[in-house]
Specification:
Helix content: 10-25%
Oligomer: single chain
Distance between the termini: 25 Å
Order of helices and strands: HEHEEEEEEEEEEEHE
Shape: elongated
Number of helices: 3
Strand order of the largest sheet: 1-2-3-4-5-6-7-8-9-10-11-12-13
Strand content: 5-15%
CATH superfamily of one domain: Ribonuclease Inhibitor
């Protein structure tokens, strides 16, 4: 599991780095070279340096918009970070940080904040002051509730909270009006009854939880394209599933489903349906194949 999480973190870093044009904005990997540079320094990476603290001269990099401090031995977010008022992308993955300081609210231009593989037990409410945030990654921490601060940031488009201990999700999730990608996999969720999903949600990952029933509000997600609820405790799917008219891929593997409602025939865009690991009889398999001839079904 740790290898998988680390791989996800590395992919996340790749995604962050892909946003930086290396020719236009060269990334400096030590403070000495950055200090000597005759050009303005916009991007720095101290990845895997074994650092316990950040260099004090980092505060002089007042034009910095990208900072990667992944894979060090930091136990806190040093004050130098919060002097970087132009910072837009911050990666502190794979450290040992236990909390986010109040000063996080100073990073008003931050759009991407990745803090995977740390030791967070909660998220500072001051994060809600960052109204330009579009992407937050807090996977593989020790969070036990969905961070309330995120509900106050309508600009968010992507949230990853996988591999935590989350058991409670606020019913007002739809306050995050621009949310398109949500990953809540590998948590402790068993009840989503009253949760209202944002209208723009496109990718929803709920696999490896303890969910017994999909919420009614989910079936109103007319823009949802990818749904993964594998490895849960689902015994049935509501006929209201017909509301998911945009869905392209649905993973229902490793649940307790014996059949699916006839309304699945209304999902004309559904290309892939995974049902492996469910107690479905052969006769039901044949019925479902005829019901959805346009769908590749995996039993």
């Amino acid at each position: 599991m740790k290898k998988i999480i680390l791989m996800i973190a590395l992919l996340s870093v790749y995604h962050l780095n892909a946003q930086i044009d290396p020719l236009k904005y060269p990334t400096y990997t030590n403070i000495e070279d950055a200090m000597k540079s005759e050009k303005t320094v916009y991007s720095m990476s101290f990845r895997d340096k074994g650092m316990f603290n950040l260099p004090a001269d980092l505060v002089k990099m007042d034009s910095l918009f990208f900072l990667n401090i992944m894979g060090n031995k930091l136990e806190k977010m040093d004050k130098e970070i919060f002097s970087l008022k132009e910072l837009e992308i911050l990666n502190v993955n794979a450290n040992s940080i236990k909390f986010i300081p109040d000063e996080i609210g100073k990073l008003q231009k931050l759009t991407t904040f990745s803090m995977n593989l740390n030791s967070l037990t909660k998220v500072n409410p001051n994060l809600a002051q960052l109204q330009k945030l579009k992407v937050v990654h807090f996977d593989a921490n020790n969070l036990n509730v969905f961070p309330e601060a995120l509900l106050e940031i309508p600009s968010l488009e992507e949230i990853n909270l996988s591999s935590n201990q989350i058991s409670f999700i606020s019913k007002d999730l739809d306050q995050i009006k621009n949310l398109k990608f949500l990953n809540l996999s590998a948590n402790q969720i068993n009840d989503l009854t009253d949760v209202k999903f944002p209208e723009k949600i496109k990718y929803l990952e709920l696999q490896q939880n303890f969910i017994m029933q999909l919420p009614e509000y989910l079936f109103k997600s007319k823009n949802l394209e990818f749904l993964n609820v594998s490895d849960n405790n689902l015994k049935e799917i509501s006929p209201k599933v017909k509301g998911l008219r945009a869905v392209v891929s649905m993973n229902l593997a490793n649940n307790q489903l014996k059949d699916l409602p006839e309304e699945f025939k209304n999902l004309k865009n559904l290309k892939t349906l995974i049902l492996a690991g469910n107690p479905i009889e052969k006769s039901t398999v044949e019925k479902l194949k005829k019901l959805m001839p346009q769908t590749q079904i995996y039993f």
